[in-house]
Amino acid sequence: MIFNTYWFILFAGIVIPVFWMLKKPFLRVPFLAVACAVFHYHYAGPAGMAPIIALGALTYVLGLTRNRFACIAGIIVSVLALCFYKYAHFLTGEVLTLINPAWGPAVEVSAKKLLPGLVAPGGSIYLFVPPLGMSFFAFEFVHYLYEVRKGAAPLRNPLHFLLFAIFFPTLVAGPIKRFGQFVPALQDGANNVNSADVAEGLRRIATGFIKKVIIADNLTLAIDYYVPQFEALDLLTRWFIFTLIAMRILMDFSGYSDIAIGLARLLGVKIPENFNWPYAAKSIQDFWQRWHISLSSWIRDYVYIPLGGNRHGLVRKILNGLIAFALVGLWHGPAWNFVIWGLYHGLGLAICSNYAAVPSAGPKLQGWLARSPRTCWVATQLFAWLGWLVFFYPVPQALRMAGLLFGVK
To answer: If we measure between CA atoms, which residue out of 58, 54, 52, 59 comes closest to residue 36?
Structure first.
């Protein structure tokens, strides 16, 4: 969490009031661009900024051409950059090695020379540290070039493109922006920041800090204490800790989004909501329309639908959904448990959206569930919350914990 660091508090405490005082858009936009560049440099450093500058410049230039093949090439470069910088170790150590034990180490040696790293206090080097916000950059650049390829007007003002790329409130934790929404919102903010914007921004920031720092961080302490002794706990306490795990991730993720949305609002910029009471959902589809909305809608629009969506029969529909949700899982980190968590939700969605087509039993079950909204809610939340065990813990441990919740020793 960088929003509660002394540097960030000082940075925001200077940048936001100066932005207000400048008044005129022709002063505010360049000032904000410089401030965002300073923010990015401070947290990413030269090694982290270099690939983003190159990728951003390429995306901007290719977008200006409006050439279909140039845009496709830019999309491929963004995807490859994301795979290289965020997933190099996973791909070499986990995937290539499975295919051929000699391939992984050989590719990894070459990759180490190009990847930024962190030096530990003892002097050992931990490589494969992706540039700050690499996932957000790649997803937003892919979105930009995809929409330009389809006919949207490119951003000709380089400052507008720069701010779309490195707008500091959303740089670390999202939401994932879409330039067609963001640039008009930026222009509105540059023209006028009113007292309602400031009041709403402060309220959202306060809400986010309460969720993240006061609730989520303290829940983490309790969870970290009790999970190692999960098997020794009585059944009721296990379910209590299970509930805390579900509450922790909601408060953590939505707290980050609240702070980002609030900071943007202090600048007069309205960015889309990212969470909409997901634990009120009564189906898996409903859950993903409420949870991490910017990510799920991005995957739908730029992975699931381009793959064919539901247009090519049931088998292809299910396969497309599984691929899309495997990527949702991988987006959270380069590890197998994230992939399995994504596939778990992809399978859940496949069942949830197709069970009614089963002859005889499907319509009856659909009718019964329509008359039992509480049952739908319980089943949806139980499914989503059990998934958090795979999200947070190695798969064998997650399965063991799930079994213990139902008394399986």
So the answer is: 52
* CB neighbours of residue 409 within 10 Å: 6
Q: Alpha-carbon distance 184 to 178, whole Å?
A: 11
What pLDDT shows up at residue 104? Answer: 58
d(CA 275, CA 161): 26
Position 107 confidence tier, pLDDT thresholds 50, 70, 90: low
3-state helix, strand, coil in the chain (%, to 5): 75, 0, 20
Q: How far apart are CA 73 and CA 59, in angstroms?
A: 10
- What proportion of the chain, given as a percentage, has pLDDT over 90? 72
pLDDT in tens, 260-291: 999 999 999 999 999 999 999 999 999 999 99
Residue 339 CA to residue 344 CA, distance in Å, equals 9
Task: Out of 54-58, 106-110, 248-252, 282-286, pick the least confident.
Answer: 106-110
pLDDT digits (tens, 9 = 90+) for 37-59: 999 999 888 878 888 999 999 99
Specify the amino acid at residue 363: P
314: how many CB neighbours lie within 10 A of its CB? Answer: 11
Which residues are catalytic, by number?
332
User: What type of residue sits at position 353?
Assistant: S
Peptide bond into 116 cis (omega under 30): no
Q: Which residue has the tokens 């292809």?
A: 316
Instruction: Report the amino acid identity of residue 167.
Output: F
Peptide bond before 334: cis, by omega within 30 degrees of 0? no
User: Phi first, then psi: what are they for 154, rounded to 5°?
Assistant: -75, 160
Q: What is the DSSP letter of 281?
A: -
Which residue, among 173, 259, 270, 280, has the nearest Cα to 214 in the 3D structure?
259
- Residue pair 176/202 in contact (Cβ under 8 Å)? The answer is no
Identity at 94, one-letter amino acid code: E
